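Thread title: Can someone regenerate the structure for this chain?

I was given the following input by a collaborator and told the matching structure tokens would be attached. They weren't. Posting the sequence so someone can regenerate them.
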Amino acid sequence: MQAENIEVVNYRNEAESDIAKLGISVKFLERAIEEGFRAFSREGEDSPRTAGGYNAWSYILKQLRFDLRTSKWGDNHYSNGVDEIRSLSRDVSIVVNMGDENTGITLKTPRPKNRKGTALQTRIETNNLLFERNDITVPEPIDPYQTWVLLFYIDEEEKEIRYELSLPNIYEKNTIVGWSKRIICEPFDISSEPKVKLKLDTQQPTETEEIDFEILRKNG
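Best answer:
Regenerated them for you:
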């Protein structure tokens, strides 16, 4: 069930205006999700096991970065295994994660699909230090960015992609388990899209997972 002290805003009321308060158009999120699904749909039975999930994540991040960078909202950033885009003026950072089946459901508590490293834990601790606990002295130096997560879940049975822009505040056992605010967007309808040839493993590689290629030398 949903945590008691969490603020949940869904697309039926103030989601679009709440996203706008971060300086972001909801259309940028919609376009990113659409590009992610197109990348997911290109994979099939001959694809590597994690190709669908990885490509969806990659193209969502890529499209979102492009739109937010070219609109002068922010700039691309990478540190300690975390790919993100950072606002130029609002001290806001956005990362993209694939979520579980509870993503985009108001009365559930979603979690990222895969476990993450300590870098994301540090970001969540920073969220709490800067924006929730005003009674303590913030240690220096500290990364001043409030980190939001664009969480998405491709539900092939319901023929939709659910997604939300949410602010994490609890991190346990290498995963996000709690949120202080969730802005749930209108699901992306995939009922009219071509069916995926094979239900793919939608694992998203962790921040430290690498893709290896074996290079064979030619004889002679």
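DSSP finds four helices and eight strands in the chain.
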